[in-house]
């Protein structure tokens, strides 16, 4: 090692604290960069795993290949993992409640295919021979047919054939004409008997799309029994994924139905060119890395710059002894490398560890948000590339940081360095403070202020990094606050946790009894059976609010004096729910018991986004005097009796502010709600059957348990159970999303803030150190410890204030921008993230004060004398 | 009137084998208005003595009375206040506060005390020190001699009981050195200001009323030059 570098190393060891803090800064920055790169590689890996779980682990598929073709493909050197699937045809599914899906569809898979295709077993085991069968849970959930493990199925298997002899497959919907005539028939070829050995999840869209007419069941393929007539598909991988398109080209004619790619998987693997996902991911990563680099450079540059100005005399001595400016410049880079050698490996390791731990705790959260069907979690995946990139970026960061200080060091002439004359010259103007400062803060405050002004340059990076931290912290807390609120806002109006839509127009007894069964579940608290229909009512000008009427006139809907049209959402709820509602409003139940005059409750509140005003509005239509009766116009056609449109009068027994359980409190614009007891339907609609839509909804403490129970009751009642809408689940997913976003964004801020802290610490402690003699002097002219502390406190307060004075307005402005972007979708008031602001204020002062206290304590230990005598510190 | 009394002052740095005795049982006293020069070779202990007299270093044993006060019986805060009112310190490297201008540096002990400066006294001081034109300059805008004059001003502003100067001319050329010494002498004569100066310079020492020579931490000679 040459002497200049030796001196540099000794210097680093001598200034232990600063060296350690700088190394910590490098560790932090390398860790953050590594976190970003490993997160990217983990996300890519996740996407690949997810796609494999959803689509299968194959690159391309050739459809309808002969057994000779299969042999040819399997023998190729550039292909691996060829999996064979035989499409054996259809059998009728007896008792299917889905009229568009009347078949079972039999697929025979060889060993490889069970591994390659996305088969997710939920119960039992995979078939081991051609007599065993795996069924999908979709058969019971959607088809309403229950099979158990151990059941024996005897199936008449054949082809779906159209009148003109065309054979149909899973990609052809069930052929039914508009008036319900079935156009296809099943031509039975053989009878087969299977034993059910397991249940799996519904196959992916590619294998069984949403309109496929058959529920897929899987059995084991016996390779010995393959014939030339068999309809075989072969799924395969290329040994070198990048060659897959060339391989596929050469196989173009092997199948009768062409080739297809697992394009999603190829895209995530980076094979395919059209690669949105990776581009977005990389772009996002690049932005983050640049942000991190800016933050880190501020810190690392600062430490080198401090080091160089402190070493100036050393450089002078070295150059006096004959060191060239090149050697001196190199010594600064050597210092940078020495720090990098320790900092980067530690940083990369801690970054991997950090992301590993984070993903360990959050992976499941992430997986449950993406899908509840496929058990893939986001786990740590470290690629060599991600480490190399992280280490390189960190090294570049360090070298950029050292570049300017190194050049400055090289420019120092021997004499200047020894005399230390290149330090910035002060002018009176620079440190001028107002008389008021001295009046208010006394000499201590004035000195503090002057010191800050003197060290403006040195402190600039401190103030800037504090500023960045404050802005990031406040705006991220604002972002997550608004995000959380907007999610809550969307679901807030829904008082229920589970919703099940009733598809039939009339209310079937089975539905009512299922409703009652569900309501009696332990896991269900409250429930409502709700049906609704849309009607209109004409209202006179005197009945409604002037402003609303004027608006209708001005919009040209009516002319002055004409009756206006108000839409009515008529809700009919089950008797218990209605009675509860009436009691809650404090009304007499008898009001609603007169069959001759059916009565309802009016809810006159509208909440909607006004396109013209570009904002959300809350309105009401009727004036204070509630209408006695409203003449509803129900059905289609016009009110003169053409079509089936009829009028019916409803008495308005009360006007309420809120709707009963299960119904939103607000209607859309120009619409009111009328709530009736389901018992009132008969007298209200004596001569017309309105078009009812319906749903049942429930609240629950244990929505996931309740959902399971509900499914069972519904499928026992012969009703489809797949379309339960679980609000809790949606909320959970959204909360998960918020949690994930919060963890990553706060994690990011905390790390950036740590870099800031290191920076502040370095600057303040160096500054305090450089002023030792000055402090000693102040003490020697009789400054007491107390007023000395006062002076330093003022200095801290001024720094903190400065960062906040710039930081808070900018963050409030950013918060407003965030508010605006969120407000586009959801109506909410602007408010500040008070908590975030308070925390950031507290932290700024905490960081500044603790750095100061640490540094003061360190110099406090030494004698005033040593400082006084020491000419060059 | 005795303004300074030093009794059996001992200062030992370090412990055990590495212990160095900087001052060994030193006793002497100084009358008000006396100009004392302390001389001795490097490492003889003269700076240690001065700093202990100034209340910025603590003795291992022994006592220092200034104007009757046992200064090392005071707590650190009282000692600081005592220092700013009763002791003026002048250093070889001026030790001015870089962010304060000349006037502020001179009045610093008053400002720390929360007192208002006596305008006339300040003007007179500035005039005498030849800094009237420089009153609003920062230290780095002054020459070495000017800086040292400012630090003399700071030492004198409070009319302290004792002015202690540690090699006040050590960093100056001969012309500036003479000026500084004349100034100190002027104050010594005009205001009967007690003055203790550490110096290597025999010419300066010979201008004093009394010369104390220190060798190996002890007083080797204590001779009155005139009076």
From TrEMBL, chain B:
Residues 4-227 form the ABC transporter domain. InterPro entries: AAA+_ATPase (IPR003593), ABC_transporter-like_ATP-bd (IPR003439), ABC_transporter-like_CS (IPR017871), MacB-like_ATP-bd (IPR017911), P-loop_NTPase (IPR027417). One of its GO terms (cellular component) is membrane protein complex. PROSITE patterns: ABC_TRANSPORTER_1, ABC_TRANSPORTER_2. GO terms for molecular function: ATP binding; ATP hydrolysis activity; transmembrane transporter activity. Belongs to the ABC transporter superfamily. This is Peptide ABC transporter ATP-binding protein. It comes from Clostridium thermosuccinogenes.
